[in-house]
Structures are given as structure tokens and as C-alpha cells.
Amino acid sequence: MTEDATLSAFDDEEAATESGDGAGAETESGSDDASPGDRARVRSTYAWGTYTCNHCETAVDRVWRADGDLVCPDCKSW
What sequence ranges are listed for the domain DUF7573 (predicted)? Predict the structure, then answer.
């Protein structure tokens, strides 16, 4: 066996640290009272794959969000 540490060696240390001072413990403080429907819709700023630019209608493999539309790098105002 090598002198490298295994992942299981860290489990016991981490559990002892979290239970010892309580700093890692999560509490139910009610800070997340909003329901999922109350939150604003989250959107990506970048995507990759097969897309068509919403401004120039060019087929591209990378798009960015500009004014709510997914656009190619040439149509994105940097």
C-alpha cells in the first residue's frame, strides 16, 4: 500500500469536526420561506450545442443570452 491517503481516512475526521463545533450543521431558520413559484425564473447566460441565433438565424454551437434571446457571438454586444 502506498503512503497516499484514502478517501475513507477523511470521513472520520470530517464527521468529528462537523459534530464538534456545530459550524457545519444546517439549521431550519426559516430563511428560505419563499415557495418555488415565488422566485424569479432563473436563466442561463451561455449554452452550447446545436442552436440557431435568434437575431441572424445562423446555425451555431455556442450561444449567449442577450435581451432574453439566445444569440451567436457575432450578435452579442460585448
Answer: 43-78
